[in-house]
Prior knowledge:
alpha+beta; 5-stranded antiparallel beta sheet; 15 helices; 17 strands; disordered N terminus; binds adenosine-5'-diphosphate
Amino acid sequence: MTSPQDSNTPSPLLARLSDPYLVVDGEGRVLECNQTTVAFLGLSPGDSIRSCFHSDELLAQLPQIIASGAANEIEQVPLGLNDNDQIIVGIQMIPIAPGDAPRILVSLNTGTSSLDFLQEAARKTDERIQQLSEQLALVSRELLMKTTQLAEQKQKTDVIINGMENGLIGTDDQGHIIQFNDTAETLTHLSGDDTRNGMLHEVCPTISQAIHWNESSPESLDKSTVDLPLHDRMVRIHCSPIHEEGRFAGVVLILVDRTKEQELEQLKADIISIVSHEMRSPLTSIKGYVDLMLGGDLGPIPDSIQGYLSIVSDNSKRLSELLDDMLDLSRLESGQLTLSMGEVDVKYVCDYVYHNLKPMADEKQITLSCEVQAGLHVSGDVDRLQQALTNLVSNAVKYTPEKGTVLVQAYADSGQVVMSVKDNGIGISEDDQKKLFQKFYRVKSEHTRNIGGTGLGLSITRTIVDGHKGTISLESAPGEGSTFSISLPAWRSS
Ligand code: ADP
């Protein structure tokens, strides 16, 4: 019997055959083969011929040939040299005289000599290599083009970024500086050499502290806006953490030079302050004398004059209110009026406003009531909170017809304290609601025509609420009434 071991030394006769031949067992396992088979079919003793012929047809015929003892021939079997090239071969299968185990001689007829065949195979492989190297050259050319395009793109982007009026600093998720434009260099008095590959907290410690950058947990950074004096400039820094697919990827800082704007704001605040002070004294004296006359202290006033004097008195009162509001708003906006924060008892604020405005409500027979949950405290400036709530309640009384109701409530709501003022007055249309908090905005309608006001009360209220890191909201419908709600962070003893 021939075993796979002794098949390495095929019979001398078969070894001379220039076409591939092989001897397989009934399951298609190679028992013996010549060098041509090894060289160009890649088959060796022990392999299955399935790996070469990729077809079950050949295998299926083997048991049949063994059983019948007759030779068989299959014409035109495609034989893969590699993935792309195939040759067509004829295959002859001859059962070998029965021994211990059935064997079949498989011989391939390539139509050419095996040398030609190998040369053809080599030529095809060369062709393939040639094709591949051409493809490779094409890909490298494209890659080079793309790289050049990218470099050009980056250059253009750099020109734009460096031409920006505002400073721009960008970092990666660790805080390495990857972008620092020319304006940022000017504002920080740093140069490219100082910033290249540096860490934000080392290169710009002042900025890093201002935005609360924490180098050990950069991902905890919040979006924020801070004003920071940098050298001789006042710079507003907009800090935006960047996220990619939910993962912290770095931060972008936009630096806006607000020195001029701040100087202008200061100038505006100074003018308003001077003008208000200068106007207040003559106004007080006008109102004082007019009220004296109206009170009859300076002798009897004819009825015809009394009406005019009342108009002068009312208008000087309105003018005085306007001056107060303008002064307040200008101080609040310019940051001159700093809030003196502390623990504020919400009940105290509500009671204060209630008692102050009760007479005004009584005058219109409006039912003013106050419901305050016990134990509410916020962190705030008590005078400013009283001022904000006074504005809302006095508006509610002003814009509610006689015999209406105004309800002041205070309650806790998810870590916040809400103070709300609800009335059943004239209400506000959706359009007006959008503009209501703008300075000097007043709703113009037949209901408001005869109601005095400056249009500054709600702007002041919102500025105060903003200063307390709170929010103000409004629900209203014309003819049904309005509810203004101020929500403030509850007091936390640290
Ligand atoms: P004003 O001095 O005119 O009251 P505000 O800024 O306080 O100025 O209010 C702006 C405008 O908003 C008012 O002129 C009024 O038209 C409207 N408004 C404010 N509160 C109410 C309210 N409770 N009901 C209806 N309208 C209101």
